[in-house]
Amino acid sequence: MKKKPILSYLLLLILSFIWLIPIVWVILTSFRALPGVASPTFIPQAFTLKNYVTLFYPSSTQALYLKFGRWMINTSVIALLNMFFSTLLILGAAYALSRFRFKQRKTIMNVALILGMFPGFMAMIAVYLILNMLGLINQPIALLIVYSSGSALGFYVSKGYFDTIPIDLDEAAMIDGADQWTIFIKIIMPLTKPIVVYTALMSFMAPWMDFILASLILDDPNQKTVAVGLFGMIMDHADLYNNFTVFAAGSVVVALPIILMYILLQRYIIEGISAGAVKG
Amino acid sequence: MKRLKAWLKAVKNHIQSSIEIYQKTTLKGKIACILSLLFMGGGLLTHAVFKAMLKIFYHFTMMFYTISLGIPFILGLSSFRTLNVRLYSILLILLWIYFYLKNLSQTFNDVKTIETHKHTWFDQLKTQIKHRKDAYKDYKNLMKKSPWKTKVDLISPFVFMGYYQFKNKAWTKGILLLSIQVLYIIYMLTIGYYDMMDFIALDTTYLPPEFVRPSTFNMVYGLLALLITFVFIFLYVKNIKQVTIYVKNERYQIDAFLVELKALTDHKLYVTLLSFPMIGVLSFTILPLLFMILIAFTGYQGSGQHFSWQGFEVFRELLLISDNLYTLLSVVEWTLIWAFFATFTNYFGGILLATLINKKGVKGKKIWRTIFIITMATPQFVSLLIMNQMFAFNGPVNQFLMNAGIISTGINFWGNQLSARVLIIIVNMWVGIPYLMLLTSGILMNIPEELYEAAIIEGANKRQLFTRVTMPYMLFITTPLLVTGFIHNINNFNVIYLLTQGRPLGVGLVNAGGTDILITWLYQLTRSYRLYNLSAAIGIIIFIISASISLSIYRRTASYKREGEFA
Prior knowledge:
The complex is a heterodimer of chains A (280) and B (567). Chain A is mainly alpha-helical and 280 residues long. Helix content of chain A is 70%, strand content 0%. Helices cover 75% and strands 0% of the residues of chain B.
């Protein structure tokens, strides 16, 4: 294969173009002076920063439902807390099921598998009712509780990863007098850094991405997460014309940090995803 | 004619050999054979209950359907507006017969190879019962030969949890056990009993108004009471067992509480690690799921606060009223088509993209990969809503096409069922391919180089390398992935809802849109129409579809079996 793969480059260029164009369009729209979805030209005729300003300092009518700053704070707090709790729960469950042999182990794994086959949304009506009884409707903390308590069901990927760490290491540490907790924290965790980072990142992402549950629980504009808030902005069709460019600006603000994180932590993501692929 | 004769002969031989198998086998095998003749899954009852239940459910649903609807549809007795239903009915019934026969021959095969006779739940149950019997005998013997003081010890856990621990100065544990018992009794007397009664009645409007709660509350509290009772019984029985063992071994020094606590960070660490997730999953996954499964058997609709049990009424409405059935079948059809295309377009697209990027000689691999990662990292609600707007009637795509002079008026992409469906699958490729590209590149790079070298020596060209080496290897490794992907797509709410919200209106469908898949239909039924019991029934149907697909494929894959050997 001495000749340059020109055809491959061409194909990659076309594909990249297809994949990037919607994103470029959003970014351009977020700087567009003319409101509305439709624009006579792909590249706006006049640029402005107004949309970004409106996002944080909305006009008095928009301020009734547009609380972007609050949404960002809500989502970040939930995301950070969820990252902490969910990671702990997922890795703990994965470690327990990977390293210990006990009577109910197989049962627990099968139950987790079966629970995963129920449509996620099905339980949500009941979750709503339970949260309602606890008085947690319109409280972002409710999201945190639901996310982290269900998170452990996603132990499969990390369990598969833990399975690949040879058990001799544990045994050597045990001879040195370490108890299981120490082995878990001091030996296994550092060795499985990619999966720890991957799990943490995914748990951090969940609140930014999740839409259904959040839209069910959060109704008050002050308590929404960005996903619910932004969706509401353009799905209320009366406002679509005025809100679309602001929505685009909001999308850019939300997506930028996530994209940056993905690019920076690429290595861990690839490792985590492919670990999940091989183990199922 | 000749062929038919040969075929008939083969069938005859088959039946004869089956009879032989039947005559030779053990009693258990005979039972399995007869049961599988009577209904599908019967032969599995002795060793794979869950699978058997699915099959039995399928069998009887189909029987019910054939008698009440299928035959009238086929004969044209039932007035119905489309031909589709007749075709569906014939197809469904033929499939049913095929599965039935396949199941039958499978059972006979199993019986012949006596595969069913190893480690079945039937045998496990037997050994378990034997264990219980032995434990009971032990207990009786102990009671007989021991002095009355020990007898008191033995009887005590039935009456007072913690008595034995107190007697042996294990104070902390004693107090803990005793308080659990006292608390449970108080709970049952004050709240639990009434909760359970309300759960059975559900509609409690006959009570004095100060005791009346909405039926949903009755259900949740009732389930909670049942869960608490189960946990209590578990602890109660465990304590009895433990005390009996202590007495039997004459080991009066009960492990100090602190020592037991310390074990929780060591060889019993798994208890600590799993108990927190278990509590979470129990209260926010299992309890809600049980609730929703039960809702399917009630009359919970609209804004009515009080409803009661009504058995299989909703299932009857869904399956026996022809309009509803037509809607269900259409939605299931599109769900399966969608899941199939979504899974395979992404899968092959991902592999192709990965091979393209990882090709020898292509430079800047990291940059190319990053470009696609950017789209993966964009939150779905952003990218999908943007896509929705891009293809809108006055969106940029139409604008571009009009400016280029290809069309004169805008195309209403989302307004037509077919174009909306095609577009959904295309947009889904945009969303999903980068993820699968990342996922498969790792595996692609791990394909042993020797395989390629061997193929090249044998004169394979590039395309053959891909179809003969790369694809088989990938398929071999990633079958579980395809299954989970398929299940994920059956439940892929985001793509459908954020793109079309189920629109446009479906032709001849009851309360469902033309692009609604089961899960979005369920969402609409709860949020817009408030038919909670109907949507719960659909949830159960989704579960049955996903469970039967994944159980039948997933259990055969290498990674599942490997784990099986591991345990």
